[in-house]
Specification:
This protein has no helices and eight strands. With about 100 residues, the chain is an all-beta fold. The strands form two sheets. It has a six-stranded antiparallel β-sheet with strand order 3-4-7-6-5-8, with no helix packed on it. A two-stranded antiparallel ribbon has the order 1-2. It is extended, with a radius of gyration of 18 Å.
């Protein structure tokens, strides 16, 4: 990619690598929470998750299924590599049904 700004030309190559595997969460405990109470949610990953778990490598969010612009970001507070679980803090949200997304760095 070449960018020209105020007569100066800068050439740069943009590269990125995608991890070859996609893994799924197996369960959420509890499966539902109160919209007004802070609650810890445990996310069980597949047992063959290929990376060592570190809480700084994960982000978790919940997206409202009715209004997908309403997203709640959950704080990852703990991970257990041996049992392949992530614990995230749910801080409250509108009542409704949410899709939970987990991303690994």
């Amino acid at each position: 990619m070449t960018v020209k700004i105020n007569g100066q030309t800068v050439t740069n190559t943009l590269k990125f690598a995608m991890k070859p595997s996609v893994k799924s969460g197996m369960s959420l405990i509890p499966s539902s929470v109160s919209p007004v109470l802070k609650t810890n949610i445990t996310i069980q990953l597949e047992s063959d998750f290929p990376f060592t778990l570190s809480k700084d490598d994960f982000t978790v969010n919940a997206t409202n299924q009715t209004n997908t612009t309403y997203i709640r970001y959950l704080k990852v507070i703990d991970v257990d590599d041996a049992s392949k679980t992530i614990v995230a803090k749910f801080g409250g949200a509108w009542s409704g049904t949410y899709d939970v997304s987990v991303r690994h760095a």
